[in-house]
Specification:
Radius of gyration: 34 Å
Number of domains: 3
Order of helices and strands: HHHHHHHHHHHHH
Structural class: mainly alpha
Length: 355
């Protein structure tokens, strides 16, 4: 049977005093560089990719740097190229650029060009160089072959206690914009677009379920209205094809996800359900004023739901005024008293806590 970790017990991850992937790769680079002091950069990279002493995941990361995909070449003959208006002779600058591009295709990037890698491998292969310098050069090569992944942005709670990752909020905003664009197009009835719309909505729902609702004592109807009107301003700017600044885009994403999470929370759904039942009840009471149209009265189940929702979620006049529950004579909990934990239990329930 699984159990939780004890205080001070370490589980998972890399064990203490175990070298990481870059350290292992740097050690092998130093060894191979000394064994082959005259080998070229490409030869050394190929030896690293085929080295059985390295773990498989490291070799899989090094292999794309050693064996790049060759660019596709045109199969047209010289006559066809002349007829198509393509020059058969290239300028020396173009040749130099193409040679540098093909030379850098084996894994070079703007931060690690082929000349830089050649210099680093030269330091590693130099026997007379200082050990610390050779070690630093090997670590730089290992860092290029195994680049560091960017850390996730920290999600700090706002003034309403709502926490969301900025990248996740931007992703959710982009999904909602795609949903809005697809729903406003006549081609939404096409099966491919309908399936795409369904997947986008499912992804948005999954993101909302992962997030926690803002603190209800701080984020009330006044703050919801502020977010709503601010989002309308951003929508107007987008409709007018006005580019949003980076600060505005981040603010729009944060307000959008916060507003939608609150709107889809259980309390908001219950409040809307209560309003719908109250409107139906009012229409059924005033059915005599509508001539021959008689709205049907509420069913017994809807009446019980309305009474329970009136007691659980009373109308909020403002965020500062306290709200008292509306208790009616037919309320199911009218003559019941809550238990010590504040909840209601049936008389014969075994879950009721003791006094």
């Amino acid at each position: 049977m699984l159990r939780g970790s004890r205080p001070g017990e370490r589980r998972g991850g890399r064990k203490r005093d175990t070298p990481n992937r870059r350290t292992i790769l740097a050690d092998r680079i130093l060894t191979i560089g000394l064994d082959h002091p005259t080998a070229s950069r490409r030869a050394l990279l190929r030896k690293l990719a085929k080295d059985r002493t390295l773990p498989a995941d490291i070799r899989m990361a090094v292999a794309p740097k050693c064996f790049p995909a060759k660019p596709a070449q045109s199969r047209r003959t010289g006559r066809q190229r002349i007829l198509a208006g393509v020059r058969t002779t290239e300028q020396p600058e173009a040749k130099a650029g193409a040679a540098e591009k093909s030379e850098g295709a084996d894994g070079a990037s703007p931060n690690a060009r082929p000349q830089v890698l050649d210099a680093l491998f030269g330091i590693v292969q130099e026997i007379t160089a200082a050990p610390k310098a050779r070690r630093r050069a090997a670590l730089k090569i290992a860092e290029f072959l195994l680049p560091k992944t960017a850390k996730k942005a920290k999600a700090l709670p706002d003034e309403y206690g709502f926490t969301v990752n900025p990248h996740l909020a931007a992703h959710y905003r982009d999904i909602e914009l795609q949903v809005r664009s697809l729903e406003n197009q006549p081609s939404r009835i096409i099966p491919a677009n309908a399936e795409k719309l369904r997947k986008l909505k499912a992804r948005a729902d999954a993101i909302r379920r992962r997030l926690q609702v803002p603190c209800p004592t701080k984020y009330g109807y006044k703050q919801v209205a502020n977010d709503y009107f601010r989002l309308l301003d951003f929508t107007g700017l987008r409709d007018e094809k006005i580019a949003l600044t980076e600060e505005w885009a981040a603010e729009e994403a944060h307000r959008k996800v916060r507003f939608d999470v609150f709107a889809t929370s259980p309390e908001s759904v219950a409040q809307r359900r209560r309003q719908e039942l109250q409107d139906a009840e009012r229409r059924s009471y005033n059915r005599g004023d509508r001539g021959y149209f008689y709205p049907p009265p509420l069913s017994h189940k809807d009446q019980n739901d309305l009474e329970l929702l009136r007691w659980l979620y009373a109308k909020h006049k403002s965020n500062d005024e306290p709200v008292e529950p509306e208790i009616h004579g037919c309320h199911p909990f009218l003559h019941e008293s809550p238990a010590s934990d504040g909840n209601f239990y049936p008389p014969d329930s075994k879950l009721r806590p003791g006094p």
